[in-house]
Specification:
- Helix content is 14%, strand content 31%.
- Strands 1, 2, 3, 4, 5, 6, 7, 8, 9, 10 and 11 form an eleven-stranded mixed β-sheet that branches.
- The chain has one domain.
- With 228 residues, it is of the alpha+beta class.
């Protein structure tokens, strides 16, 4: 996903990849989470790591902000990440399709324990893994049938969603090209008539009932999907 120049870092949870990980929650009741991501850890072993949501805008300036994230893990197999708050205001993007509709994206990452990066380069230095086949998506208002956004994301209620990410098939690329040519020949705006990101996104089956795979790849950078 686009992590530069627009980069937003949420609060790290407890060590998601170490045995005996405990919740960040205090004795104070924090309320029900807005979304819960469940996943499995695979790949190279590491002593411990912190979970993070890395927010990315579709364009804009580099900022940093935080969101409460609670993580519980059981090395080396499972973790659960609870998102307690909406995205920070600075994380929201608008699109040429419906400028009044605000959306936000986040990659699920694993960073070295205790790291507090505030820039993309510092994140790359601390990155030890991440989820590459899914992104967390938030839409501030419903995406309904007839909206241009629905052509990209489908119809969605307002709130958090888990999207699966993959490359377009050759057939899908051909269909996009045909759509753009037809729109241009008709004197229409191809970006509005044939909206698309760099990668195909769709709601994961069962949304947050789906289990994501967090791959540990210490030393790797730029592992996340670039949505454009």
């Amino acid at each position: 996903m686009l992590r530069s120049p627009s980069f937003f870092l949420t609060l790290f949870g407890c060590a998601v990849i170490s045995a005996g990980c405990s919740s960040q929650a205090t004795d104070d009741y924090q309320g029900e989470p807005l979304a819960v991501v469940r996943g499995q850890i695979t790949g190279a072993s590491t002593a411990s790591a912190d979970a993070a949501l890395l927010w990315s805008k579709l364009g804009g300036e580099t900022l940093g902000s935080s969101t409460r994230v609670t993580v519980k893990g059981a090395f080396p197999q499972k973790f659960t990440l609870a998102i307690m708050d909406p995205p920070p205001d600075a994380a929201f993007s608008t699109t040429p399709w419906e400028a009044e509709s605000k959306i936000a994206f986040a990659d699920i990452a694993a960073l070295t324990t205790g790291a507090t990066p505030s820039s993309p380069s510092e994140v790359d230095a601390a990155l030890v893994g991440g989820v590459t086949a899914h992104v967390v998506f938030y839409n501030q208002s419903p995406i309904t049938s007839g909206m241009t956004l629905a052509k990209v994301f489908g119809t969605l209620d307002a709130g958090y969603h888990l999207l699966s990410v993959r490359a377009y098939t050759e057939e899908e690329k051909a269909a996009q090209s045909t759509c753009r040519d037809a729109a241009t020949n008709a004197g229409k705006d191809a970006k509005l008539e044939c909206p698309a990101l760099k990668l195909h996104v769709e709601s994961a089956p069962g949304e947050f009932a789906a289990e994501v795979e967090l791959k540990l790849v210490p030393g790797a950078s730029d592992i996340f999907p670039d949505l454009g």
